[in-house]
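Summary for the funding panel

The consortium committed to producing paired sequence-structure records for every protein in the target list. Below we show the first two records in order, beginning with the earlier of the two.
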Amino acid sequence: MRAVVWTKYGSPDGLEFRDIPKPMPKDNEVLIKVHAATVTAGDSEMRGLRFPLWLAIPIRLYMGLTKPRDIVLGQEMAGEVEAVGKDVTRFKPGDQVFGTTGMRLGGHADYIRLPEKTPDSVLATKPSNMSYAEAATVPTGGLEALHYLRKADIKPGEKVLIIGGGGSIGTFAIQLAKYYGAEVTAIDSTAKLDMMRSIGADHVIDYTREDFTQNGQTYDVIFDVMGKGSYSGSLKALNPNGRLAYGNPKFSYMIRQLFDSGGDGKRVIIGTPSQRDEGLLYLKQLIEDGKLKTVIDRRFPLEQAADAHRFVDSGQKQGHVVITVVPED
């Protein structure tokens, strides 16, 4: 089968398009014919090992000390179940599914095998009103946004700020916050402002021209998707009893959270997002009810996965970048 194999840490030049053996499902696994996958910022960070030292070391130990062990990247995908192991009860051949792969990765290939149930990956039948390409964009970003906004416990009428609203997680966070009844302000670069308005943001801020910590506005919830905003500035921009959630916090923020919550009942939310079947089914229902949609910036065929990584590395993507494994009609 065709696959894009990760052969070295660093630039997309280490991604090689190859033929590798087709996997066979074990008793508790499903074999999925992948139709579409994505390249996320997380895939880019993993490929380049762009993590703080405390995280990079265990990843090297797991993936390969000097180079990755010929791993196929891809954290989310959508496709059709081709075969199931004898112990599988939830899926059958022909089912159209979408989900996350967990630390197994593997979405950038013709086929992937996944356990029916596992702590770090989720799988469900895909939304009936989405194509495979659209469905492939939902699991990672949608589940991360859902996790942190649930932790923030948004109430109708509250003011919510999404820092990094134009990416994979942020586009879902904007829509989920609106669904919960919030007044949403989204921050990102100039090119992404119109897109964020189109998916429901009430207000937008161009971070290249305005510092939200200096404009006098305050919020009930701030969700910093990539953890790049000022910790102290964000706390000051919170109303009393406000919640500050970090999707990808710096290590220093994790330490500060232990000692500094800003007072006035403010709360800092940091932690690994949970991925559960329940969450993916919840997102599926919102999609089928017309409450949630995806934003696809560009699509690349499987053999051009390295180019997709280069585009993600540029920081220009709006929403999602899709890898098309099986061309859609």
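The next record, for a separate protein in the list, is shown here:
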Amino acid sequence: MELNKVMDNVYWVGNNRRMLVSLNLVKEQSVYGERLVDVKGTQYREWIPFRSKLAAAIYKGVRGIELHSGSRVLYLGASSGTTVSHVSDIIGHNGQVYAVEIAEEMGVHLILLAKTRDNLFPIIADASRISEYKDIVPKCDFLYQDIAQKDQIGIFIENANAFLKRGGFGAIAIKSRSIDVTESPYKVIAAAKSQLQKRFIITNSVPLSPFQKDHELIFIRNG
């Protein structure tokens, strides 16, 4: 079975019908029912684009995502840890991912996941209230946000100001229906880009259809 590297610890498997996988940090662990694939004695986890916006972006052709082995990541809106677990795979044992989730029920899943992954630090807090975790999270290389709140952009900017290193990178999943259900997704996303451009350098942007309807993942650099 052939492997083609996408980024650190992420690969396409196969030739005709390719599958995106990440190197499994915890052997034999399937986090959300994803398939485990063994290639030449090394185990990988399928990264499903319908379950992860970051995987959807890669399937849509995005390259140059500045997540690396050893990166320090702040992840806002971690939910039960689906995408977080793949970020954990990418950064490896020398990286850290600080995963913020407001819902206590989802937080339980994160805490259990962290028991098996030494690079994952769950934080049960509101991403719009950085005072709740400002003494826990250090300066980070990458900021990832996937939350369904009206002020998504403001929350992202506030967290970047507090935690993202100068020259660091980030990605924000724009959920147009969460911002304004009465306006067209195109206009909502255009307005979001305009707002982000006032603070960051936008390095890439990709609509996530057909994997995620009315969503766009926008990548930035903290200039």
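Regarding this second record: The two ends are 41 Å apart (CA to CA). Residues 54-221 form a domain with the Rossmann fold fold (CATH 3.40.50.150).
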